[in-house]
Amino acid sequence: MLEKTLVLLKPDAVQRGLIGEIISRFEKVGLKIIGMKMVFVTKDLAGKHYFDVEQRHGKKVFDNNVNFLTGGPIIAMCLEGVSAIEIVRKMVGSTEPKASAPGTIRGDYSHVSYEHADSKNTITRNLIHASSSKDDAKRELELWFKKEELHTYKTVHEIHTL
After folding, report:
1. Is residue 161 part of a domain?
2. How far, CA to CA in Å, does 80 sit from each of 33, 97, 103, 112, 155?
3. Residue 45 forms part of a structural domain
4. How far apart are CA 35 and CA 152, in angstroms?
5. Would the pLDDT of 4 be above 90?
6. Closest listed residue to residue 10, CA positions, set 89, 93, 75, 96
7. Is 92 a domain residue?
């Protein structure tokens, strides 16, 4: 089933110069970028994005997440493809970088544990956000993109194989 999903390359991915490497991984598996922009995130937008974190994990975790997401530019992308949400989540790896398998984005480019981040009273820098479900993808895409910022086009593969 064709799906759309949100991917955010967080400030640590941008600051480390991993944008191209990460985007190319998605393109290589055939996911299509139908929206992309660089954004300096406001605290208001970050709070809306992390709307349920305070309830689930407490104010400290919420504040750390908001402060981190607003700490530098991010790349927001809408990816489209068959089972895009599941495929992207598999490629990204576990939310905790230490637990991410080699070959995943987090497994290849980050390693920090929750325990280490907690001991430093900081966020676990894990490079990337990916929508976790169809409902989350719908809500997040509406939050990050206007309808006119998402585009329809055919890739070379679609033109020659469909």
Report:
1. no
2. 6, 25, 21, 29, 11
3. yes
4. 9
5. yes
6. 75
7. yes
Q: Tell me the average pLDDT across 51-71.
A: 93
CATH of the domain at 147: 3.30.70.141
- Total of domains in the chain: 1
Instruction: Report the length, in residues, of the chain.
Output: 162
Residue 30: give the domain boundaries: 2-153
The verdict on residue 159 lying in a domain is no
Angle ∠(62,68,74) on CA atoms, nearest 5: 125
Quick one: average pLDDT of 10-24? 98
Give the pTM.
0.93
Q: Of 129, 151, 157, 160, which residue is the catalytic one?
A: 129
Assess whether pLDDT exceeds 80 at residue 118: no
129 catalytically annotated: yes
On average, the pLDDT of the chain sits at 94
Q: Model confidence at 122, in pLDDT bands (50, 70, 90)?
A: confident
Backbone angles phi, psi at 27, to 5 degrees: -65, -40
Tokens 């997040």, residue located: 140
Q: Give the helix/strand (H/E) hosting 60.
A: helix 59-69
